[in-house]
Design a protein that fits this description.
Keywords: Oxidoreductase. With 259 residues, the protein is of the alpha/beta class. The protein is built from eight helices and seven strands, in the order βαβαβαβαβαβαααβ. It is globular and about 55 Å long.
Length: 259
């Protein structure tokens, strides 16, 4: 737990499922004021949290690829809690397709959520931080696939590679104002988007064989990283990527001296 996070205001995109849900619940546990966006149905965990902490938790429906809706999300946080201290761009989508057969609409949809959403959220955070001389924090959800190629997911990998360089760029651009920007790059995490794959013992074993630590990660592992990067413990860290991947990016085929 990080005592200095108590009372801080965080905006979290894609808060309703998987990693965003875990980050939201961890930030609420830290005593933070949380504004999260969701698409579709608000999960019971967040609805219960909103009822339990009506003075510091608010969730709104918003599409992160829509400029006006992201602006509205930021304004909701400011109107409700007076400020923004941490902005987590977590919302993301993926859809497998061979690149030669990929519809342009699929390409545009993935880039709209995964990259435009990161830009729009970061821009709103930066506008607020600079206007109020606030040493705020931006955390962008990347992936091991900012580094590892992923056939049939060219749009997803492209969006994550771009997210890394975008994050480095804004980190450098605003470092002299005390504003920090970092990525978290999850590896294989047991989230709803992976539930079907990991329910197949063969696919689960295959994925585990690609992780040197031999296990699939939990959403809480990512939430722990998000709490750390938002805290004062990370006050001298900016423009970097924190890989939370059990070693997946360490060329696991070489693990036992092969090659």
């Amino acid at each position: 737990m990080y005592g200095e996070l108590h009372g801080k205001v965080a905006v979290i995109t894609g808060a309703a499922t998987g990693l965003g849900l875990a980050i939201s619940l961890r930030y609420i546990l830290e005593g933070m004021n949380v504004v999260g966006d969701y698409v579709g149905t608000l999960p019971d965990e967040l609805a219960d949290a909103e009822k339990k902490h009506p003075d510091r938790v608010k969730f709104v429906e918003a599409d992160v690829s829509d400029e006006k809706q992201v602006e509205g999300l930021a304004q909701t946080a400011i109107d409700t809690f007076g400020t923004i201290d941490v902005w987590v761009n977590n919302a993301g989508i993926e859809k497998a397709c061979h690149t030669a057969e990929m519809p342009f609409e699929d390409w545009k949809n993935v880039l709209a959520v995964n990259l435009d959403g990161v830009f729009l959220g970061s821009r709103e955070a930066l506008k607020h931080f600079t206007a109020n001389k606030k040493k705020g924090t931006i955390i962008n959800m990347s992936s091991v696939h900012q580094q590892i190629p992923w056939p049939t997911f060219a749009h997803y990998a492209a969006s994550k590679g771009a997210t890394e360089m975008f994050t480095k760029t804004i980190a450098l651009e605003y470092a002299d104002q005390g504003i920090r920007a970092n990525c978290i790059a999850p590896g294989a995490i047991n989230t709803p988007i992976n539930a079907k794959k990991f329910s197949d013992p063969k696919q689960l074993a295959q994925t585990e064989s690609m992780v040197p630590m031999g296990t699939i990660g939990k959403p809480q592992d990512i939430a722990n990283a998000a709490a750390f990067l938002a805290s004062d413990e990370a006050s001298y860290i900016t423009g970097t990527t924190l890989f939370v991947d059990g070693g997946m990016t360490l060329y696991p085929s070489f693990q036992y001296g092969a090659g």
